[in-house]
Structure formats: structure tokens, C-alpha cells
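User: I'm writing a short report section on ligand binding and want a predicted complex to refer to. Could you take this sequence and magnesium ion and write out the structure as C-alpha cells? A short remark afterwards would be nice.
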Amino acid sequence: MSDAVERQVPDLGRPAVEGMFEQRLAEAFAALGTFNLAVFGKTGVGKSTLVNAIFGRDVARTGLGQAVTKGLVYYRHPDGFLGVYDSEGFETGTAGNVILDGLHRIVAEHGTKAVDEQIHAAWYLVRWSDRRFEQAQAEFVRALQGLGLPVIVVMTQVPTRDGQVHPEALELAGYIESLGLPMAPRGKVVLTNALADPFTGAPVYGLQALLDDTYQVVPAAAERALTAAQVLDIGRKKKVVDGIVNQAAVIAAGIGATPIPFADAALLVPNQVTMIARITAAYGLPPSRSRAMAVAGSIILTGGATMAGRYAVTSLLKFVPGGNIAGSAISATVAASLTKAVGVAWAKVCEYALSLAPEQRDAFFQGHEVTEKFLSFMKQR
Ligand SMILES: Nc1nc2c(ncn2[C@@H]2O[C@H](COP(=O)(O)OP(=O)(O)OP(=O)(O)O)[C@@H](O)[C@H]2O)c(=O)[nH]1
Ligand SMILES: [Mg+2]
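Assistant: Sure. The C-alpha cells for the complex follow:
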């Protein structure tokens, strides 16, 4: 016992685990920070449509709008990790200059503040069917760059057929690219179509390319928020989540390095709570549902036990190899594989939730289905 780490087995019944979940979820969301995007382009080019296509939510409708300067509204999504500066009803020329003056002030003010408050990327949208790009638009792009914002020039509503872009859209893109504008990150116009057009058969196009380019210009500090906020590239979320799960498994192995008596399985719980909270945040499942998630998570980890929980976790041990050998203790290997199994199953629960319509997610996390799904994912292994 002399050099053995003394381990205090936490007394973790459901209410305690629930409280721990709420706290860790809040921490995990705070750690994401905020990704701020500014979107410019004439009225009707498709700013709102494009933002909705990539972030899966009507930021303007669900966000809290605040007119930050004439012609520019800042929407902070209630989830916290996404902010959008939207130049609604924007026109170039005099109106554009007014916006630029206001922006100048915003950028100057925010540049000295935390990364969370800075503008991390700007999209300048041009509609292909306008078939022209005016001097004033070029100047606006230059001015944005002059403010230190990385500007991605995006062509919207671009029709394609069998992967071939409409030749006139290509021609316009070629013209814009010939102007020598400071276009991040590759000096290329990004061609997109945010909504399929059932009449012409034009499919959704170019959104992944726009997102990838956006990642290229975003500072590392805002990347995690962008990954949580976007709904287009689930693979990027998964990659982050894999890292979280593996890290938690390593920690669990460390805890199990001194084998844990079955009755003390609660030793593994705090690490698993942190892991689940971080997974949830990485997927961008909103903190507005954190109460429901805390309840669901605590039921999962305690097996629903309401008594003080020295038996917490053990009900899940039957799902991992070596976890149900009567009389033995929980080894490093079993601790790691249990933690990993819990993480992987919770990740699948989150992905399932993301596949639901946003209005249905609440009901999912508040009902029995979430624990049933979790257990079915555990069994599938
Ligand atoms: N087919 C197709 N239609 C689009 C696309 N983007 C926008 N639209 C349509 O164009 C119209 C205007 O789109 P919005 O996204 O509201 O345009 P906006 O730039 O936000 O306009 P303001 O907010 O007025 O400045 C809507 O009817 C959209 O459905 C697109 O990529 N493809
Ligand atoms: Mg709009």
C-alpha cells in the first residue's frame, strides 16, 4: 500500500453523476469557443441559403440578431459556437462603403479581443446568373482583404449537369480570377449550388469545397467551433471524437493499472463523464439540451441506479471481453476497452441524433430511446 496511489472511490449515484455531467458539458462547450463568419453579397444571391446548407440551421431565424453596424447584423446562434455577420439586403456602392466603415471599426475593436470575438473568415458571394462582376464588387473584396479578413469568393446558384459546370459560370469565374483579387485561399472562385433545383435537375454542388477552403483560412483556435457548427462533413467531427475517445481510454488504462475491484468501478465514471461531454460538444449537439443529456448520460453510466453508486458502471462491463469474469478485478485492459466501448456507442448515439430533424432531437434525448439506442450500440460491438 506504501507507494500505491490511494484512490478515493467516489460515491456516485444518479443525482451526483447528473450534476457532474452538467458541469462537464458546460466546460466542454466553453472549450469549443466560437467560429465567426461574415457573409457578403447582393440581396438574393443566396447568403442565408448557403449558411443554412453548411451549418444546418437557420441562423438568422434561430439566432439572436444584433445590428452591429448599418447593413450588418450579427447573429450569435444560441448554441454559442457559431456567429454569423450577415449583410442582409446588401448593395454595393455607397451602401457598401457604409458597411466597410462599420466593419473597419468592428475589426479594429475585435482584433485586440479574444479570438472568439474576431471574424475568422469572410465569404463574398456572386450569383452566376448575374453574369457580371462589377468594379464596385472587386473593390469591396479588396477592401475586405485590406481589413485583414481572409475573403473567399463564392459563386452561388451554379448549375451543373453530370458534374460539368455551366460554361457561362466557368467563364464568369475565369473573368473574376483574372482580376488579380486577393482571393483566399487559392486565388480561385468557389463554385456552389446550395439547393437542388428539381426543375432543371441541377444538384447541390461545391459545398464541401467551400467548407474545406474555409478550414484553410480559419485560425486553429476557431477550428473546433467550426467542426462542431458545420453539419456537412461528419467525417471531421468523427476524427475529433476518435481522438477524444482514445485519450479517455488511455486515462482509463492508467486508472486500471492498479486493478480495480468490481465494487469500485465508480472510479472510472468521472473520466467517462468528461469523455461523453466532450463527444457531445464535438458533434455540436447543443448545450440547450444539456439537461436532457445529463440525465441520459447518468442513466447510462449508473445503469439507472438511484442509490449511492458503488455499483455504477458494472452493468456495462458485461459488454466487454474480460469484463464479466466473476471474482476478478477490472484490469487496465478492461478499463480501457470499457471506456472505449462507451465512447464509441455514445458517438453513434450523437450521430443518430444528428440525422434527426432538429425539432426531433429534443424528444430523442428526453425519452427512453436514447438509452435503448446506446445499449443497442454497445451490444453491436
Ligand atoms: N436553386 C437555388 N436557389 C437558391 C440558392 N441560393 C438561394 N436560392 C434562392 O434564392 C432566393 C434568395 O436566397 P437567400 O438565401 O434568401 O438570399 P440572401 O442573399 O440571404 O438575400 P438577403 O437576405 O435578402 O440579402 C431564395 O428563394 C432561395 O431559395 C441556390 O444555391 N440554389
Ligand atoms: Mg438573407
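A remark for your report: The chain has 15 helices and nine strands. The domain at 34-229 is CATH 3.40.50.300 (Rossmann fold).
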